[in-house]
Amino acid sequence: MLIEERQGSSQMNYPLRRILTLVCLPALLLVLMMSSCRTTYIRGKKGSLYILTQKVFLYEVQVPYDVATTYQACLLAYQDLKLTPQVKQQDAFSALLEAQFADNVPCKVTIKKLDADLSNITIYVGETRNRARVMELFNRIREHLEK
């Protein structure tokens, strides 16, 4: 009889546990994540600019080119800005280039294949209050893609 009572009481709490795990925990995690990170999201015609903090900027955009074409445009854009990129990864599906500006500010470009002729470019520039660098690098990449 005691075993049956325990089973019955745990079955009564099952809907409550399910509500807590499916609704409350994800909502709590979302609130905690949003409060710990100051993320501003700006959606434009050409892409999305994420201002992660006052110093860190991330720009993300989809381009109608394959990874190899986008990769070559990124290399040329780095050369235009007199940056020497280190190629961390490069294959048919993705590429990662890293460089530093003259004042040791890191700059990373990640390219990921989305479709046969569609790539996603993510430009990360950290520890700078000037988001103009992100936009300048992207504009150079765009110029080389459109040539």
Average pLDDT, rounded to a whole number, is 73
State the major sheet: 7 strands, antiparallel
In the CATH hierarchy, the architecture of the largest domain is 2-Layer Sandwich
Order of helices and strands: HEEEHEEEEH
Here the CATH topology of the largest domain equals: Double Stranded RNA Binding Domain
- How many helices in DSSP terms? 3
The beta-strand count equals: 7
Strand order of the largest sheet: 1-2-3-7-6-5-4
Rg over CA atoms: 23 Å
Total discrete domains: 2
Task: Determine the strand fraction and express it as a percent band.
Answer: 25-35%
- Which class do the helix and strand fractions yield? alpha+beta
- Poorly predicted residue ranges: 34-45
Q: Would you state the CATH class of the largest domain?
A: Alpha Beta
Query: What does the overall shape look like?
Result: extended
Characterization of this structure:
The chain is of the alpha+beta class and 147 residues long. It folds into 2 domains: 1-36, no CATH class; 38-146, 2-Layer Sandwich (Double Stranded RNA Binding Domain). Helices cover 44% and strands 31% of the residues. It is built from 3 helices and 7 strands. The chain has helices spanning 2-36, 67-80, 132-146, and strands at 40-43, 48-51, 57-63, 86-90, 94-100, 106-115, 118-125. Strands 1-2-3-7-6-5-4 form a 7-stranded antiparallel β-sheet, with helices on one face. A hairpin with a 5-residue loop joins strand 5 (94-100) and strand 6. Residues 34-45 have low confidence and may be disordered.
